[in-house]
Amino acid sequence: MNQSPTKNLRGWTHVKSGKVRDLYVPTELTTHSGRDTVLIVASDRISAFDHVLPTPIPGKGRILTSMTMWWFDQLNDVTQNHFVSVDVPDEVQGRAMLTERLQMVPVECVVRGYISGSALAEYRETGSICGIALPEGLREGDELPEPIFTPAAKADVGDHDVNITFEQVEEITGKDLARSLRSISLALYNRAREIAAKQGIILADTKFEFGRRLQPGETDLVLADEILTPDSSRFWDAGTYEPGKAQPSLDKQYIRDWLTSDESGWDRVSAPPELPAHVVEKTQERYIHAYERLTGQTWGR
C-alpha cells in the first residue's frame, strides 16, 4: 500500500509531498517539447478534516489518475491543461502523470451548484457564501439559483483552506487574473455538470487549481493537478437525490461520516484513528463506482 512516496525513482528527485500526491523533478536538466516537466504521483493516501489518515485506500491513486486524464480529454476544448504524457517510471505506472511545471496560483477555485458541507455552515451563519448573498431558506442539498465561484486560500499540509471573497482573490492575484480564474472555473464546472448529468450523476461542487507557464511572455492560465475526482468533488446519484438532507455521496463523505460517528471516537484534534476494514472497503467501492458511472468504463481491479 502506498503511504510513503516512492523516493527512489531512477532519473527523478522527490521534491514535495502533499496530502495525496508526491512530486518529482528530473534528476538531470531535461525538457519535453521545450517544456520543464514534473512527475505527479497519486498515492493511496486519503485525507479528511485536514488530516492525512493512517489507513490508505487500495488502488485509489490509480483511480484518481485515470479519472483526471479522462476529464482532461473531455474538457480540453474549454481550457488547456498541464498533462504531457504517461511515459513514467514502471514503479508508478498507472498512478502517475508527466506534466508541465507551472507557477501555481495560490487560490483554490471552488465552484458550487448545490449547498452542502462548509458552504452550508457559512450560509446558516451569515446568509452568504464567500461574500455572495443567497436567498433565504435554503436547505442542505438544495440547488443554488446558479453556480457560484467560492474561492479559498490554499493552505499547507495540515492546515485548513480558508474561504475568501472574490475581492480577496483580486488582492492576491490582481483583477484580470481573478476574473479569468472565475470565468474558466465556472465554464469547466458547467461543462462537467452536463457530462455527469448524462450519466445520472449530480456534480454538487468541485475545485480546480491553475498555474501559469514559466516561459517569459506566456501568461495564459493552465488547468493543473487532479480534476473532478471523488477527492476534489461531491458526486451525488441523481436517482436518489432528495434535497433537505445529507445526500449519499460517491466520494469520501463515507469516511467523514465515520470519523464523526461515536464508533470512531475521534476528537478531530488528536491523530486520527485507523480506518476499519468495512470503511476502507465501502470507500473503495464508491471511488470505483464513481469512475465507472462517469466514464462508462469498467475499472480493472
Automatic annotation (TrEMBL):
Keywords: ATP-binding, Ligase, Nucleotide-binding, Purine biosynthesis. Its EC number is 6.3.2.6. Pathway: Purine metabolism; IMP biosynthesis via de novo pathway; 5-amino-1-(5-phospho-D-ribosyl)imidazole-4-carboxamide from 5-amino-1-(5-phospho-D-ribosyl)imidazole-4-carboxylate: step 1/2. The keyword DNA repair does not apply. GO terms for molecular function: phosphoribosylaminoimidazolesuccinocarboxamide synthase activity. It catalyses: 5-amino-1-(5-phospho-D-ribosyl)imidazole-4-carboxylate + L-aspartate + ATP = (2S)-2-[5-amino-1-(5-phospho-beta-D-ribosyl)imidazole-4-carboxamido]succinate + ADP + phosphate + 2 H(+). It is an enzyme of class 6 (ligase). This is Phosphoribosylaminoimidazole-succinocarboxamide synthase. It comes from Flaviflexus equikiangi.
